[in-house]
């Protein structure tokens, strides 16, 4: 049973690198676009009896999600033996619960749509909340961005490294890095009245003279990470940088980062940058995904792809 790798248009830049690292050419997909915007993807080669991997991040616009669903349905109707959906960035993951009355649980809805389309397995990286894995009734391989960030941080040779979470919700993620490096942990406790607007922030922990690394799963407007950087510097941190898997970077994010006190922000290529930025360092997850695809195809455990944090 051969592997065939395809990509939606939103993530071709990454899928090309994944396919190259895996050692197989990226499969061909044609798209018919009607004048009103309706799309119709067409897989140009036979997938009957093949193990298919479809790569597409679901960042806005929502057409990216719709395109992914149509490709999954096309592969199912073409008799693929299995359909593995690779979602480097799982959009709508921040809506994973009812935090107020009369709101949707969008992450669960997206999970239902992907399963209903015909996916047999999901592969994602650094979901906003671990419990999203339970929204699927099919196997989920939840990869970890630490695979690329830990070697990079080691290469910097920081002598007084310390880790910090920009909010209380990210403590577990930051603590895992701190444990691996045998370093201390600080927390920036933020309060906000509405989305994308931080009203106040206070620091829990001592950062005097430390090279502090903020750890988060995504950056949207960058207001939180930049305010956390200011707070850490005010409290005596020697340097402040950040590692964040998904560079959503909306609104004034690029401007906020360029004018921040942060030395740099290391991100992955799960979402393409819309412009160049001197303080943003992009690390690729292509090798990580290629290795995961190989292990899934060979029916091997993917546990070796996790840094033991």
Explain the layout of strands and helices.
Blueprint: E1 3-7, H1 12-22, E2 29-33, E3 39-43, E4 51-55, H2 63-77, E5 82-87, H3 106-117, E6 121-125, E7 140-143, H4 146-156, E8 161-165, H5 171-180, E9 185-191, E10 200-204, E11 211-219, H6 223-234, E12 239-247, H7 253-258, E13 265-268, E14 280-283, H8 286-297
Parallel strand pairs: 1-4, 4-5, 5-6, 6-7, 8-9, 8-11, 11-12, 12-13, 13-14
Antiparallel strand pairs: 2-3, 9-10
Helix pairs in contact: 1-8
**The CATH topology of the largest domain is what?**
Rossmann fold
Number of helices: 8
Cα-atom radius of gyration: 20 Å
- Sheet having the most strands: 7 strands, mixed
CATH class of the largest domain: Alpha Beta
Q: Count the strands?
A: 14
Overall mean pLDDT: 94
Q: Estimate the helix proportion, in percent.
A: 25-40%
Distance between the termini: 35 Å
Q: Give the H and E element order.
A: EHEEEHEHEEHEHEEEHEHEEH
Strand content: 25-35%
> Could you say which structural class the secondary elements and strand pairing correspond to?
alpha/beta
Count structural domains.
2
Strand order of the largest sheet: 10-9-8-11-12-13-14
In the predicted model, the low-confidence regions spanning at least 5 consecutive residues are none
CATH architectural designation of the largest domain: 3-Layer(aba) Sandwich
Shape: globular
Any overview of this molecule?
This protein has 2 domains: 3-143 and 287-305, 3-Layer(aba) Sandwich (Rossmann fold), CATH 3.40.50; 146-284, Rossmann fold (3-Layer(aba) Sandwich). The radius of gyration is 20 Å and the shape is globular. It has 309 residues and is an alpha/beta fold. The chain has helices at 12-22, 63-77, 106-117, 146-156, 171-180, 223-234, 253-258, 286-297; strands at 3-7, 29-33, 39-43, 51-55, 82-87, 121-125, 140-143, 161-165, 185-191, 200-204, 211-219, 239-247, 265-268, 280-283. The longest helix is centred in the first third of the chain and has 15 residues, at 63-77. The chain starts with a strand and ends in a 12-residue tail after the last helix. The protein is built from 8 helices and 14 strands.
